[in-house]
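Technical appendix A lists one of the benchmark inputs used to test multi-chain prediction within the project. The record comprises three sequence entries:
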Amino acid sequence: MDVLRRSFLTLSLLAALDASSPLRAEPASIVVASTTSTEQSGLFKHILPLFKQKTGIEVKVVALGTGQALDAARRGDADVVLVHDRPAEDKFVAEGFAKGRQDVMYNDFVLIGPKDDPAGIRGKGVDEAFRKIAASKAPFVSRGDRSGTHSAELRSWKEAGVDLTAVRGDWYRDVGQGMGPALNTASSLGAYILADRGTWLSFKNRGDLTILVEGGKRLFNPYGVMLVNPDKHPSVKVKEGQAFIEWLVSPEGQKAIADYKINGEPLFFPSAKKG
Amino acid sequence: MSQTLQETFSRLWTLDRDVLAIAWLSLRVSLTAVGIGLLLGVPLGALIAVARFPGRNALVGLLNTFMGLPPVIVGLILYLALSRSGPLGALGLLFTPTAMVAAQAVLATPLVAALTRQVIADADAHLGEQLRSLRLSAPRRAGVLIYDARFSLFTAALAAFGRAISEIGAVLVVGGNIDGHTRTMTTAISLETQKGDLSLALALGAVLMGLVLAVNAAAALLRGHAVKAYG
Amino acid sequence: MSAAPAIHLENVSLTLGGRPILDRLGLDVAAAGITALIGPNGAGKSVTLRVIDGLLQPDSGIVRLAPGRRAFVFQRPALVRASAAANVALGLIPLNLSRRARTERIEAALARVGLSDRAGDAATRFSGGEQQRLALARAWAMRPDLLLLDEPTASLDPSATETIESLIVEMARAGTAVLLVSHNLGQVARLANETIVLAGGRAVERGPTRSVLFSPRTAEARAYLTGELPWTSFAAAS
């Protein structure tokens, strides 16, 4: 039938259109599983072109929560992970999914809330601030997505001596989403929220929110990088993945991280051990 | 609100080549998926319309179920299949445009098949007796009816395109929303919304609407010509 | 009849949607010439054609057909949104002709119905008369042994009707057995050698056309013809 021939032609054309990308000689590339905070802060858009220019390796970043990113790597769907939840990272290494972990950079978490500050936490210590929020039952937005930020938030309640399961109520909004959507929710609710400074600085829909507590060392947020163990997943691109990690911790990579600023403010601070 | 809208319009003029590349990828992925959906769904729907065979009702039920399947479920199932630890992991297709095409094709095919079944059943009511009298086999009759109803099947193609280009659940999960590689209009809009850049998200949304409008207009034009020629 | 009949029905019954349509119908259609099937609306004429063609399965009874090819022309021509030539070609698919033989037959068929110069035009854009000519051209191209016609000129103007009728006669002369369902008794009188009257799902009368039309023997046939014939007095007189 005429119709079959014609539709077949059209479809082969379409298929050719699609095939044009995988068949094209692609540059070497790796998949990096990372966190929404690094992606949404804009850091990768700044540093990856520099790395590609130097090595020709294309880095494809899949942004997930830290927990999801590590799971994707466990399944072998990433070559490198760059995340920020130290206990989870150590577990990943202990399970043998990576042979080691390296410090890359850090920033810090900040406690954000509405300018009128109904719980009265402005300028207070971190523990006191969390206790006051719980006591006043002022709205608080939690990521609730097993991300590094979520882990840090849960640790903070614990360290402040707040038994979350006991005081949890309507005021505690568990949104189960990335940093951006959680900030959007907090902004529209006028709620408190724990955020990483990088995402906060690049976040545009702030509304009435502002930084109320800066924890310094207490809310330290370190990022680590790991090459997925090729013994577990032979598909891992060891050479290219290793090149990326080495560049990140090299003086050149560290400078690229330090140079990324929004309104003159750096978002991440290099922390690789020298040598 | 009005400020956001004003910003949206001003940003429409400054959308850069990145946006063009994203729009082109969206178009390419969704059109390919619809092409595959047509290749599989049209013959399937037409055969269901003209042939009587055991299990036909079950097949129709299955199609209708698949038609209502949330994209994110399709994405998740395909993700598990294409993951390095999954049965198709060796293909290395996860986080590629090909995986996104596959996911959207899974979404498009049942929709095309179900709509085709309806269109062909209508054509069969008019022509079926004559075709059976000519002793044509069921596949042959399906082919003739597809040809006869080819302009009405445009509607099925457009509906499938609409479902494909506007979905986010499946492409996000199997594509990974990788900048410059698997970022589509919908995942880009979602990302900008998450970053709180609502005016850019809206500007991208306007581009997406423009794309859909352009494809629909082209199809309507083509269909108009065809209908004028064949009635 | 010297030869075996083209169609032999015996005790054929069929119920559709709870309504009995055919009631132990028995009839024979001659292997040559034109046989008309007439009767009031609802008598089961169209259903009989469909049972003969195999489009409907009877609940019981015997349907015996002489071996050979059948063609069916419907009251409303069923044409595909394609060229006139493609619509004729449709009927030739099961014949597995060579490309050349197929083209020749299509051209001859279109020429016969006066549509040669419109071979490439969209058939669905044709007038009613042209569409029915095309449907008949399709049947003609198949060179059937048996031609079933279901009121082929019901909605056509006189000149289109004339073309169709001459074509039917020509096919009958070439050896095709024709079974014609028609309400147009003038047409029946012009074309048919034999006529069968159907009423209530049964064949109530069969005979040479003239004698059936002008001197029906059964009350049912008389009742129908009285209603249909303009020259009622003839029927009433007999």
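The interface with chain C takes residues 2 of chain A (CB under 8 Å). Residues 28-106+222-270 of chain A form a domain with the D-Maltodextrin-Binding Protein; domain 2 fold (CATH 3.40.190.10). Comparable benchmark entries are summarised in Table A2.
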